[in-house]
Amino acid sequence: MAEKPAIAFLLYNILMIMAICIFFPIWVPLVMHRKKHRHTFWKRFFMKAISKKTVITATKKNRGRIWIHALSVGEVLSAEPLVKILAEKVGAGQLVFTASTQSGYETALRVAAPYVSEVRYFPYDLFFSVNRALKVIAPRKVVIVETDIWPNFLYRLKRYNIPVYLVNARLSKRSYTGYKRVGFLMAPLLSIFTKICVQTLRDRERFEDLGVCKEQIVTVGNIKFDQEPVNVSEEKLQLISKQLFLPENLPVLVAGSTHEGEEEILSDAYRKMCQEGIESILIVAPRDPERAAVVCKLFNHQGTDAVTLDELEIKQMAFNVVIIDRIGILRWLYALADVAFVGGSLVRAGGHNPLEPASVRKPVLFGPHTEDFEWICQTLVKAGGAVRVSDSDQLANQIMRLISNREQNQLMGRSAHEVFASHQGAVKRTLDIIFSF
Question: For the chain, which domains are there?
């Protein structure tokens, strides 16, 4: 088994060197031209030293930090309940959190920073960058949340005998198919993990089919269920309503984490509702807040007056469609909603987390493309807490049904919350595994 990882590792680095040589002339101008890449490049290439003010409370048994890594926004939010309990167990001074994307990093600053000593960018998978990061963080354990598997990083951990855990692990059909194509690389890579804590039995079967030993895999459930529900006071909700200039008598629809291609469908559905005489407020929160202006223009061009949140704060007047151009407030908006639509699901983006609206007792709608949250979505639909829609007609009809039937709306919201509440406990099971090895 030792020879296979070495061969795969060598092949990976040969391919990487070839790719760098070919694409370097394109990559450098791209990094310099795009603000997002320019902002993250050096922080991922060369991790700066951790402040001397950061204190680590260590014992002979527990020396070094625990490094928690999450790829982007969704994974960072998944990691939140795990980080909180880890901080209670070992102390924030022993935890360092990394994310790969700028939006993931910004989300980590908001949700993880209070519970860790440092939030950093994950290094590029280059010898120099990985070695520098390991020297700076000096981890005794590494925890990777859901995904983001990099050969150089994992092999360095193996070389230094640092235990590494893949937690809340899942394999959608798309990921599983892709990994199977490069099984010669994935099998030895996955063998490096000390334990892989998977969400479902199907995930376990797929990891086993990729060549992972049965003893290496533990089914613990989904740590997303352990996220704290949004706790928003009635006064806070009233303040948000006032800031959005929401009329008291109109229902509020919140479409969260939408992608390009979905806003057109939302716009069509909203116009159909207006034609039926249904007046309501639509709040759209694009997955990428930088798209807010483009989304706003789309609604305006199709005949619906829309405004971004920044513009709303300047104009100080009510609009029926508001496009959110900042991160960090979607959970509050879900608490304010009468009906919630979870994006990334009417287009092939894998879907996003439906537990956020479910945790605040809201009826949930999503499209057919929920591969990244398939088990959760199926469970919500089966329990009567969510409904799948496939086009603008179905979306409009379901929203109108839930707006007009208050009893059905509340029943569906309660059912969604029951699913959320009854599947908690995965964080504790995950930590039991991490601290058993």
Answer: 7-228+424-434 (3.40.50.11720), 234-422 (3.40.50.2000)
